[in-house]
Amino acid sequence: MSLDFHAQQASNQRKTYGLLFGMAIVTIVLIYAVGLWLGQSGTALFPMAVIFALVMVWGSYYNSDKLVMTMTGARIIDHDSAPQLFNLVQEIVIAAGIPMPKVAIVEDPAPNAFATGRDPDHAVIAFTTGILNSMDREELQGVAAHELAHVANRDTLVMAVAATTAGVIAIISDIAIRMSWFTGGNRRDNNDSGNAIGAIVGLVAVILAPIAALLLRSAISRKRESLADATAVAFTRNPTGLRRALETLAQDSTVVEQRSNAVAHIWIESPLDSSTTSKLFATHPPIEERIALLRQMEGSGPAK
Fold it and tell me: 39, 199 in Cβ contact below 8 A?
């Protein structure tokens, strides 16, 4: 059965918005739970949590590209350094209608690539030397289209919000638990069974909220990867190139040197996800599933 990549794009967009809404709900529930657990009103904590979250989001949004470039060792190159790669990227940029990003190379034998930058005007797409050496032009076109799809879809912003919100939730939960050591939890009206139940519910929520946030962050990342695959097909009108590229990645067992959890989600193939990793915590859909979806898109014929 063929698969319309436009329908796949719309489906992944809707699911992303739903997951981001879920992150907001988890944050609100956590703040209320902290109030129950500490025997105080969670209302007073809400403005502080919002301000804290905004500061973290703003910081990661404006500095994420510098951090990623430093952590991965990516170096910006010019047209004269790799004219064929530049021309290939420029072709897709014209088709996508987005500004030309900076192009970088990572000295690493593992085939991989990533995109970073706070918006299309400040974007960088990077390729490892391993991927440049192991893929032909059609495959590299699919990879470049996938990374430029992340730029066009503003996935850097989406993932900054998801990651920092998950971080804020973890910090609030940690602070609440540490505060309970000094306050003894909810000590008011110990004989009031309602307050006792509320304290227990609050404690459970404080413990489970960071896990829920991590699961949601991973789910959002997976949806953005699926969205980028579908958008890449929209740019190139050729699912075969990206499908062949993913098959090459699936056959190669080399892992990039920079495999930190902080940047695992940016690579086209996660260096951390494996057959033993729970799908719930994986930042990317299984590569076999991505290949299967692209095969379905190949069956749908040229885009109208």
Answer: yes
Q: Residue 207 CA to chain centroid, in angstroms?
A: 24
**Confidence label for 3 from pLDDT (cuts 50, 70 and 90):** very low
Q: Is the dihedral of CA 74, 78, 80, 85 positive or negative?
A: positive
- Would residue 303 count as lying in a domain? no
Nearest Cα residue to 290 out of 259, 246, 252: 246
CA 267 to CA 114: how far, in whole Å?
5
**CA 67/CA 70 separation, integer angstroms:** 5
Please return the burial class of 287, using the count of CB atoms within 10 Å of its CB with bins 0-12, 13-18 and 19+.
middle
Cα–Cα distance for residue pair 238/232, rounded to 1 Å: 8
Q: What value does the mean pLDDT of the chain take?
A: 80
Strands 124-128 and 113-116: antiparallel
DSSP of 213-232, one letter per residue?
Answer: HHHHHHHHHHHHHHHHHHHH
Q: Is 269 a catalytic residue?
A: no
Cα dihedral 171, 176, 178, 184, rounded to 10, equals 180
Domain holding 199, by residue range, is: 5-298
**pLDDT recorded at residue 105:** 96
pLDDT computed for residue 66 by the predictor: 83
Q: Which is catalytic among the residues 107, 138, 139, 147?
A: 147
* Number of domains making up the chain: 1
Q: Residues 176, 37: contact at Cβ < 8 Å?
A: yes
Residue 98 lies in a domain: yes
Beta bridge partners of 128: 106
In the chain, helix, strand, coil percent, each to 5? Answer: 65, 5, 25
* Residue 200: per-residue pLDDT: 72
